[in-house]
Amino acid sequence: MSMLADQNPKQVAPGTCIKIPLPADFHHHFRQGSLLPSTVAHASRRFVAALAMPNTSPPVTTVERCRAYRRDLEAALALAPEAVPGFEFISVLYLTDSTTEETVREMHREGIKGFKYYPAGATTNSDAGVTDVRNVYPLFKVMEELGMILCVHSEVARVEIDVFDREKVFIAEILRPLVKDCPKLKIVMEHISTSFGVDFILNEAPPSVYGSITPHHLLHNRNAILSQGLRPHFFCLPVLKRESHRVALLNAATGGSGRFIMGTDSAPHDTTKKLSACGCAGVFVGHAAVEFYVEAFESVGKLDELETFIEAGKKLYGVEDGGRVMCLEKRSWRVPETYPFGETGDVTPLRAGEDVTWTITGIE
After folding, report:
1. Scanning 95, 142, 251, 278, which has the fewest C-beta atoms within 10 Å of its C-beta?
2. What is the pLDDT of residue 9?
3. Which of 258, 265, 261, 194 is nearest to 234 (CA)?
């Protein structure tokens, strides 16, 4: 669909209205327990579906745990007053060294899309992740056979590897051999953060490999963490990189290849846990994720490429939207300093106290 006519090469005029395919988020941390009503309410009014990350505590490692977590998510959805009709949760299991082929086949029968592969220690609640890729290699062959999806946190976690080089090393050590041995395995390199990830997907990997990109990696570079003091609410894993990598990601997302998809990696933590001696990694973008993506595409005059970016993920995961569209207007709104988070806490969102330039006006 053509969304804009006579569009300015860069930003469009205030009051401009656009329509985009109803988006879906293929990487979302809803957390658990009393935190679910807050996170689900934000996501369900912006997306038709969202992939629920399984790094809860304990992690979602079995089909039974997945059923229980889905029940909790759906109970929170029932409380969301502005949820998109038909909103659905997409489930994946947390891959561990002890995951069995029997589990893979059981989850396929259950309709669970695939696995999340966390290298042990790479990010929040990843201690139960894979310690050596060779431990799970036989499972990749079964997944390839069944057409399942492997969602990958594409960073090594070894302490001797610089935090800014983790994605580059993961590609060399893990992904190049994996795509050679399992060329038809559907892989999503989640939250890619470097030009190395872009180049690997476009120039080396088979068509079965995709990359998800977050709004914060499209809009910000590592200066955001360190400008005018330490700004912990921009700290995430993978960490924001230098400007050349941000530009490469933006060119990839807006380039129309169909190999890059929406994945917000909205990862809320209570404000007190971010403002601590060892602050948690994660950026909360669930309150304005779609609006941020629109800003990023508008910044390079590529709003017409949003459809490809949105639809690529929906096609990969089999998400239906009933032909509906989301309507947005170029009209600013001010982000609150915090949002309620759980029963007594709060979460500080990206761009707290600042303006977002697009407003969602409805679903058609």
Report:
1. 278
2. 53
3. 265
Q: Is residue 352 part of a domain?
A: no
Strand runs labelled E in 142-194: 149-153, 186-190
Q: Evaluate whether residue 152 is within a structural domain.
A: yes
265 a catalytic residue? yes
The H or E element containing residue 162 is: none
Q: Which helix (H) or strand (E) holds 311?
A: helix 306-317
Task: With beta carbons less than 8 A apart as the criterion, state whether 360 and 328 touch.
Answer: yes
Which one, of 105, 106, 100, 90, lies nearest residue 53 by Cα?
A: 90
Q: Is residue 336 part of a domain?
A: no
> Residue 181 has what DSSP assignment?
H
Q: What is the CATH number of the domain that holds 281?
A: 3.20.20.140
Paired sense of beta strands 260-262 and 209-213, if any:
parallel
- Per annotation, catalytic residue among 25, 97, 127, 265: 265
Whether the predicted model's global pTM rises above the 0.70 cut: yes
State the 10-residue block means of pLDDT for the chain, 364 residues long. Answer: 42 95 98 98 98 96 97 98 97 96 97 94 82 93 97 94 97 97 97 98 98 98 94 97 98 98 98 96 98 98 97 98 96 98 97 98 97
Sign of the torsion angle spanned by Cα atoms 35, 44, 347, 269? positive
Closest CA to 217 of 188, 186, 241, 181: 241
What lies within 8 Å, CB to CB, of 291 at 6+ separation is 328, 356, 357, 358, 359, 360
